[in-house]
Amino acid sequence: MGRSKKLGSKDTMKLLDLNINKYLFLDNFSFTNPDNNIDFLNLKATLSEDLEIKLSLLNLAAHKIEKFHSFFHFEQSFFHLQLAIYHLQNNEEAQAKEQLELAIFQDHVNDQAIAIQNNSKNYKPYQRPYPNFSDYLYFATEESGKCLSNNYWDDWEAKQDSKTIMMIIEKIRYHHLNYHQESAKLYLNRAIIFHQLKQDALAKNDLVKANNLDSKLKEKDYYPIVISQLGTEVVLGLGSNLGDRASYLQSTITKLEESNILYNITHSSIEQTKAYLKPNHPPEWDLDYLNMAIKGVTMLEPEELLKAIKDVEHIIGRKDFQSWSPREIDIDILTYGDQEVEQNNLTIPHIALLQRPWLIKSLVELIPEWKYPVSGPYYNLTIKEIYEKH
Q: What torsion, rounded to 10 degrees, do the Cα atoms 303, 304, 305, 309 define?
């Protein structure tokens, strides 16, 4: 992997704690080898000061955690099938049909469920991947031993009626859902390490995996903390002086968030301003703007961000891209972290930042301690200090 990197005192890395053994029915299992324990691997990664060691531990944890995804689906498919068979035996065709559809949804190649659904008798019985807990335990941990967890294996062996099957389905569903949520945390942790190692493409991949595993990830209280470690804080200026201006501003914020261009969005107050126009402008261009600024975290590089916001302008409905002309929405990159950027068609901080009072005021609302990075009379002053000088 190359030379190891250690964390310096300035790093504020925060990895998430895991509690996945509980949802793998392993919370009371005594591991012979701690490195077979996903929760322990994550804890070791959290405590290590070496980025390469952190990554190695999280890679091993991810390898182990991925084994369980299909397992949960197979188990649910099996028990939905058993419940369907029970309903058929009791001439409850509507309930049987529903359970067969759920069995096939969980495993698209459940041949027995498909055959029964098609009134065919040409099938082999659908087999569970691990018919007893000891086999599952070896699969899960590569170890043998006794687990005292309250699992459903004993329930199934003791009583195979509809009430028991429904209880088992609900238990597996609950564990499966929480498995997804805990797995998402692991990928977020690895994304943080990839970002620290400047492997941002891999960090983005793990962020996508985490969101795919947990559809409500963005609602979690820890999500903004993770995202703040993965990207760069930016401020964008939004303006509209055509049509339903307030609606265009709100639609733009929504699209930036839905498109994963910006995370953790907050916004300034809205201010109405006169349009900046050149002499001899068409009189119909003299329309007041509604302006605001939004702060968020992006995982895009400056040129990627510029392209992305131009795409959003098009999606929102901007039709005229002439300089100074009225527009449904205009999006400008005002700041990009503490960086000064000079690239093709892109200057950051925005070239007009200190010439437009509403921009300075908006930045004071959002990032009052941000320091102006451009050489000159305002170099290294906070935006709040600059505002007080104007």
A: 100
